[in-house]
Structure formats: C-alpha cells, structure tokens
Please model this.
Amino acid sequence: MGSIISASPEETERFGRRLGEGASPRSVFALYGELGAGKSTLARGLAHGIGAREPVTSPTFTLVQEYRSGRLPLVHVDLYRLEGPQEAEALHLEEFWNEPAVVVIEWPEKMEELLPPQTERWELLLLSENERMIRRKAG
Ligand SMILES: Nc1ncnc2c1ncn2[C@@H]1O[C@H](COP(=O)(O)OP(=O)(O)O)[C@@H](O)[C@H]1O
Ligand SMILES: [Mg+2]
Model:
C-alpha cells in the first residue's frame, strides 16, 4: 500500500479496515494530519478490521480508549490535548505495545521520540471537502 486518494469517509474507513486486518500484536499505527483530515475515521475502520464490535468513538476527551472485543486488543489514543512528550511519557503507552496490543495514535507528533521502531506512519491530507490523500510517511 503506497498512497491512495479517498473520495469519501466510507472509503477511508475501508482503507483503515484493511490495515486492521493486516495488523499483528505490537503493531503501532501513527496517524498524522490536521483536524478533519480523517484520522478518527481511519481508526474506526482499523478497529473494525481487528474485529472490535464496540462503537468506536473519538477519544479526544478520554485520551486513551481500549477495545477488547476483537482478535487483538486495540488501544486508540488521541494526543491532541497533550502539551508534549513529558505528558505523553506519563501515559506509559509502551505497556500497550508490549502487552501485546495494536495501538493507533492520533497526533503522534506529540510523542515522536517515544514511538517504537515498528511504528507505521500514515499521513492524511485534506484535498477538498470529500477527498483525502492517504500516504505512508517516513519516520
Ligand atoms: N474522504 C474522506 N475521508 C475521511 N473523512 C472524510 C472524507 N470526506 C469527508 N470526510 C469528513 O471529514 C471528517 C473527518 O473527521 P475525523 O475522522 O474525525 O478527522 P480527524 O480525526 O483527523 O480530526 C468527517 O466529518 C468526515 O465525514
Ligand atoms: Mg480525531
């Protein structure tokens, strides 16, 4: 998977579902992109790809949301409100990727230097109201 243009939220969700289907224990997905780029939409698809049956909400107010009904535990993190790496460090996310669980992180730039080596980075770019470019990002 290189880069794709998604023309709808459904298409972005489908893309996420494929990522989730291919995820393994300790997979970490870092989702970059501005507000409204579609990070949470992709994360919802990813949760479905792992088989999570709970409704997948945006964890903006809870920071860390766990889903345990799929074939692997999934942890969805939104760091938008974090000040920086010290606060990120206090979340001890390494416990999740050592568990092993799948971790999806929105606003990963808030903890760039704490991301583990296996992190798969994806960038979402707003092209128009309904179009997004989704592409791999170098670490
Ligand atoms: N192709 C697309 N992919 C993803 N979201 C889209 C797309 N087109 C329109 N949207 C809309 O953009 C918004 C994306 O929101 P969200 O996934 O919460 O973004 P983020 O988590 O990056 O802030 C939603 O309202 C969604 O319906
Ligand atoms: Mg979001």
About this structure: Helices lie at 9-21, 39-50, 85-90, 94-97. The radius of gyration is 14 Å. Strands lie at 3-6, 28-32, 64-67, 74-78, 102-106, 120-126, 132-136. Residues 3-136 form a domain with the Rossmann fold fold (CATH 3.40.50.300).
